[in-house]
Amino acid sequence: MGLCQYCGLREAGSREHLPGVAALNDAPVVIRYLVSKAGEMRHVERREADGFVVRTICGKCNQRTGGSYGTAFKEFALQFRSSGAFDDSAGRTWVSL
Fold it and tell me: In Å, how far are 22, 49, 70, 90 from 65, measured between CA atoms?
């Protein structure tokens, strides 16, 4: 773990939900990614019981900033979900804001 990405003073040990729990990020998820070691690529899988989390900020900054943007993102996600989506042939979704 490195230093907090916000304050740069404390260890980045806090489990930060991205997006925050207030933005509906509180359900079980499976994260799959590639790891390269000694020239060999392999898939790694990590399960999180309570949403997608990373360790990039310290506990103090996590508590201070979480409520600031979580509610706004939740509103955006709910509006997008109810508006329907247009998927093109490449699997991309267009969102008009």
Answer: 12, 22, 9, 35
**How far is it, in rounded angstroms, from Cα 85 to Cα 42?**
34
Sign, CA torsion 11/15/17/20? negative
**51 — phi, psi (to 5°)?**
105, 175
Which residue, among 49, 47, 53, 52, has the nearest Cα to 14 in the 3D structure? 53
pLDDT surpasses 70 at 97: no
Alpha-carbon radius of gyration of the chain: 17
Mean pLDDT estimate for the chain: 80
Phi–psi pair at 52, nearest 5 degrees: -75, 125
Tokens of 27: 């359900």
Cβ count near 70 (within 10 Å): 18
Question: What average pLDDT does this structure show over 14-39?
Answer: 85
Question: Residue 93 pairs with which residues in a beta bridge?
Answer: 87
